Amino acid sequence: MLIDGTLTKSEEKFGVINPSSGEVFAHAPHATQAQVDEAVAAAKKAFRSWQAVPLSERKLAMAKVKEAYDQHRDELADLLVREQGKPLASAKGEVAGAAGLMKKAIELTVPPEVYSDTATRRIEVVRKPIGVVAAITPWNFPIFCSVAKFAPAIVLGNTVVWKPSPFTPLTALRMGEILQSALPPGVLNVVTGDDKQRFNVGAHLTSHAGVSKVSFTGSVPTGKKIMSACSSDVKRVTLEMGGNDAAIVRKDVDVKAMAPKVFSGAFNNSGQICCAVKRCFVHEDIFDEFKEELVRCAEKATFGDGFEVGVEYGPLNNKMQLDKVSALVEDARAQGCEVLCGGGRREGSRGFFYEPTIVSNIKEGRRCPTQEQFGPVMPITPYKSDEEAVARANDSEYGLGGSVWTSDFATGNALASKLLAGTVWVNQHTDLTEAPFGGFKQSGLGREFGSFNVASFTEVQTLSLAKQDV
Ligand code: NAD
């Protein structure tokens, strides 16, 4: 682990499993409470001087971070395949995407807002760093989701304690080593731990008095616990949580052209994307044709070990997720839903592979369409009118993303704007840019990315200056 600029071990360890083989291939340290306290203390100490470093110099430091990171991109992609399971090309894409986030952080501007500037007074709003940021991150995009937090947080003058998911600690630990010398000690700390052990590193960090802000990406149940933990001393908190995105496919689409795109929106990263298509509503006039095309896509999909050439989809990341997805499909089957393809684990593999699965004849209110599956399973349902489709799409506790698929751009735009979700798309899904990202309803609190990083990682200070000579 990286604590106060020094690489540190722990007596306790936990196994890291390669999801393609189901076997432990490495061990990661389980931080002790004293080590987490030390990391927070180091970050707190470093904050005193880091906050006073001019923005331009902090950007230069982030440029050094990026330079060190860039030199190890292939190695990190390789490690990502082994601990996360995704195909190598996707891992390289994630690593490159994270480098892009570092570049965006270096380009951040924090212009002061002048509300009033007269002969007698000036009112200006400035942004101040918050303090120690705990970055708590998930296993689906372990590098991208983490850089999205620590790069802007550090550029904006905060210091960070990063706790990755116990399923993907190795890329974080290696990044700690790689970036160790690019920043002053304590500005970035990396601590790891297994949620199953006695001491939960994430829970300790989020209730720690030395932490001023928690930036969390993960599931809704954990996000709720964090929000509650943060209330004790009114920590700042941003929550990027799960989704149950709907795709509405209108009858005017070119079925053969659009079905593969909807399929990718649901199954990329084996469905383990917060804003993947998780419910698909298709107009009844094209329902059968669209359904057949989706099944064709599923049957053509190649999945396997991420290092195999030509593999498009990897396994689920962990056994817990595999069991959850299997249970959802079994529940759907038991309720009389039709499993059109897939519907089971890959035969003869000890890895966490689940076949791409499409389910129809959905019963309203069942677990499959109402819970986030976070796996390679898509329920599809016919609808009659645009109004009905929008109402059903919005009938969810989640509100992360949503999309409308149509050849009528104006109608698509109008319908998309009626979706209650943080990001809405027309004729695409999961396409993320530097624009703000986050959720309506239980999908999140606050926004990150783009200029919203400034809102997320700074406090607002109003300077009210009387100019007259007193
Ligand atoms: P998770 O909630 O199980 O874990 C996320 C992180 O929280 C991990 O680092 C974990 O160790 C930590 N944690 C666990 N218990 C904690 C506690 N009591 N206090 C503090 N931290 C604790 O989520 P996951 O299974 O790793 O990730 C999958 C979920 O993440 C899905 O729901 C997915 O939709 C969501 N996700 C959301 C976004 C987004 O930007 N909205 C992006 C990626 C993933």
Automatic annotation (TrEMBL):
Domain spans labelled Aldehyde dehydrogenase: 10-462
Family: Belongs to the aldehyde dehydrogenase family.
Protein name: Aldehyde dehydrogenase domain-containing protein
InterPro entries, per the entry: Ald_DH/histidinol_DH (IPR016161), Ald_DH_C (IPR016163), Ald_DH_CS_CYS (IPR016160), Ald_DH_CS_GLU (IPR029510), Ald_DH_N (IPR016162), Aldehyde_DH_dom (IPR015590), LUC3-like (IPR044086)
UniProt-recorded Gene Ontology molecular function terms: oxidoreductase activity, acting on the aldehyde or oxo group of donors, NAD or NADP as acceptor
Transmembrane segments: none
Pfam families noted in UniProt: Aldedh (PF00171)
Active site residues according to the UniProt entry: E240
Keywords assigned by UniProt, alphabetized: Oxidoreductase
